[in-house]
Amino acid sequence: MKMKMRRRTHLDARGRARMVDVSRKPSTLREAVAAGEIVMSAAAFDAIRSGAVAKGNVETVARVAGIGAAKRTSDLIPLCHPVPLDHVAIAIGYRERERAVEVRATARTRWSTGVEMEALVAVCATLLTIYDMAKAVDRGMSLGRIRLLRKSGGRSGTYRILRTLRQAGS
């Protein structure tokens, strides 16, 4: 069976890296939602939830870090376009049984390219900030399950994760 080779969007005809030209694409409302988690010791989990972390309010600082990181995604990921974000939201939740803090980031724009990377970068920065603020309590915290949950807008339409990683056996 012969497989069709896909055109490489981020390489020019000579194989050199390039930024995709989106100047002819229409601006549409685009949104992406990503999530991830950090699992930790009971002591770290309790300190974060109760506001007893010595560095300060973990949720507030982590939320600001996530929003700021989303706005700077193109500074971190070489071929990403600088996207004018209309909205970034960070939700932080707690799963006591697993001693996990879950982060969900939503990024929205009316632009000619998507915001999946902005949502994913926001999740990562939020999780890393939680780690940084609570590492004095638990250096063994584990970040993971970072994934795109949903994206909408643009030519490729809507994407929704079909199964969570936990359901898939990961």
Account of the 3D structure:
With 170 residues, the chain is α+β, with helices and mostly antiparallel strands. It has helices spanning 42-50, 58-71, 73-76, 116-134; strands at residues 28-39, 87-95, 100-111, 142-152, 159-160. It has one domain (28-160): Molybdopterin cofactor biosynthesis C (MoaC) domain (Alpha-Beta Plaits, 2-Layer Sandwich), CATH 3.30.70.640. The chain contains four helices and five strands. It is elongated. The two termini are 31 Å apart.
Write the layout of secondary structure elements.
Layout: E1 28-39, H1 42-50, H2 58-71, H3 73-76, E2 87-95, E3 100-111, H4 116-134, E4 142-152, E5 159-160
Antiparallel strand pairs: 1-3, 1-4, 2-3, 4-5
What share of residues are in beta strands? 25-35%
Instruction: Supply Rg.
Output: 18 Å
CATH A-level architecture: 2-Layer Sandwich
Structural class: alpha+beta
Helix content: 25-40%
The major pleated sheet works out as: 5 strands, antiparallel
User: How many β-strand runs?
Assistant: 5
Highest-level CATH class: Alpha Beta
Given as residue ranges, the uncertain stretches (5+ residues, pLDDT < 50) are: 164-170
Order of strands, widest sheet: 2-3-1-4-5
Shape type: elongated
Total domains: 1
Tags for this entry?
alpha+beta, five-stranded antiparallel sheet, Alpha-Beta Plaits, 5 strands, single chain, 170 residues
